[in-house]
Amino acid sequence: MNSFVSAAAIGAKHESLETVVRLTDVYRRFGATPALDGISLSIAKGEIFGIIGRSGAGKSTLIRCLNGLERADRGEIDIEGRNITGLGERDLQPLRQRIGMIFQHFNLLSAKTVEENIALPLKIEGVAKAERLKRARELLDLVGLSDKARAYPASLSGGQKQRVGIARALAARPALLLSDEATSALDPETTRSILSLLKDINRKLGLTIVLITHEMEVIRTIADRVAVIDAGKIVEEGQVWSVFANPQTAITKSLLCGIRPQLPDHIAARLSQTGGREAIISVDLAGSEAQGALFADLAAELPQAFRLVHGGIDHIQSQPVARFFIAVPTRNLKLAGQVQQFLTARSARVEVLGYDTDHA
Ligand SMILES: Nc1ncnc2c1ncn2[C@@H]1O[C@H](COP(=O)(O)OP(=O)(O)O)[C@@H](O)[C@H]1O
Ligand SMILES: [Mg+2]
């Protein structure tokens, strides 16, 4: 009993030291629209925390509440252990220096050079010019734009502009970086390079990053944990690989649609719910069982009991996450049952999607 109590106490202490962001039952309403409808979450130091949802879900409102640009109607927001909910503008100022932010449209000042843009937060803080410029040069080096110090934003590509945005956000050495759709205006290749820069900075500086996006690919590439938000509520939350492996809600499944195997349309179109020659079955699994031997073992145990239709093994946060579709002949009901039993015993999630009426 004693040892249990002390272990719990150590756990609680550890958590209070390491939590950078905590929201407790946060509400924000615009007229009849509940933009945030009871949000609670907790983000640890050094984490990349992704928040995903459709347009209008409440993502921007949530991120704006974190740096005091938006007020919560109700609930508590703690940043680095400090409750910011009741703070006035003057008290929010030092807090905002602990938080950097990057935006979809970069928000650079077009009349200022790259280094002036980057040094601007330091100028506002009253840092001397020589020191500001020194810091700007360091940051340009960090984001790979050392040769652009004197350039103006108009002469830069979108990816370069976002690198400047990232450098500016880091100027005041924040504890937290907020990203609101920072790659949504960029092409896929530039998106990858910006995400890899953010990951790099996260590793090098131990910087906590909260990233909001409507693209699962962004979450997949960079986030450690993800929360899915819909109509102002968190409908699902967890380690990215685990949410990808076993999404619980229709909204998450639909956000995942483009990046995990789906039954090909022409097969889905001819499925019947009442019967057919083959049952089409989805097989989902993650972790060690997903590493490959499963279907070889199944074929050895129950010869000619199935064929592979579609699917593959992905790796998310170094975890194998597999999703396959198989067809199982229905002429031998016992065999079909054995296939399902075999897969279930190996921790796969198995779902009969319907029966293929056409396949010969
Ligand atoms: N300043 C505002 N005034 C009125 N309605 C707003 C305002 N900001 C956001 N909303 C509404 O709140 C909801 C959530 O918006 P937002 O947080 O911008 O969503 P997202 O970033 O996920 O697209 C939407 O219905 C939006 O129209
Ligand atoms: Mg938004």
Automatic annotation (TrEMBL):
Keyword Membrane on entry: yes
Biological process, per Gene Ontology: amino acid transport
PROSITE patterns reported in the protein's UniProt record: ABC_TRANSPORTER_1 (PS00211), ABC_TRANSPORTER_2 (PS50893)
Domain named ABC transporter: residues: 21-256
Gene Ontology terms: cellular component: plasma membrane
A Pfam match: ABC_tran
Family, as annotated: Belongs to the ABC transporter superfamily.
Name used for this protein in its record: Cell division ATP-binding protein FtsE
Originating species: Rhizobium mongolense subsp. loessense
Lineage of source species: Bacteria, Pseudomonadati, Pseudomonadota, Alphaproteobacteria, Hyphomicrobiales
